Amino acid sequence: MEHKSIAIDGPAGAGKSTLARKLAGELGFLYVDTGAIYRTVALAAIRAGANPGREEQVLPLLSGLDIRLDYGPDGQQRMFLAGEDVSQAIREHRISALASAVSAIPAVRDFLLEFQRRQAREHDVVMDGRDIGTVVLPGADVKIFLTAAPEARARRRLLELRERGQQAEFDAVLRDIQARDRQDESRPVAPLRQARDAVLLDTTSLDLEQSLQAMLSLVKERLEL
Length: 225
Ligand code: DC
Hints:
Order of helices and strands: EHEHHEEEHHEHEHHEH
Low-confidence stretches: none
Largest sheet: 5 strands, parallel
Mean pLDDT: 96
Shape: globular
Bound molecules: 2'-deoxycytidine-5'-monophosphate
Number of strands: 8
Strand content: 15-25%
Radius of gyration: 17 Å
Structural class: alpha/beta
Distance between the termini: 17 Å
Number of helices: 9
């Protein structure tokens, strides 16, 4: 039987990962966080002494890259790099910009395309990222483009960082978010943009529960659940 897929794209801090995870939980689908995969590639690059933004330094690493995605007993996605669980390490603030830089390299995106599509062939998935509805799963059953005003996204990201015990200032987080938006939207290959058939959901004035309910009703209608 064909598996169902739900594609969720949008800029950093729009609530994608939290909402996609909850949505997947409600539906009994597998949640695939594709940003975590790019983060792992960025970490692999710096650990190898390469600059994640420099194509000529990253390309030679790709063939030897040992990346694995798995799920813990708690159902949470975990990333492994050469057998080591790097799920925590890839969440460090400095990795965000490096992941954005490495993700602009076309060969990196090509390399990860099949990796991501395999998950959707083997499971019902809720997959989140930047190009899921446009490139990775253009035939997804439901596509949602989640966005929010940059200030709202910066506020949420700040809370998230502080909950993880990381120090951050609002202005710096906002600047980082805006720089990452620019970089993700302006890259020539698979830039962040709304797929023509995606539904736009602006969560600026919605809380988590309201956003989740909006997504659930859309998905149930489309999948006739
Ligand atoms: O969602 P995130 O913040 O974990 O993603 C980190 C970076 O990875 C993001 O700035 C851009 C890149 N990315 C991408 O290019 N395509 C995806 N499908 C997911 C993430």
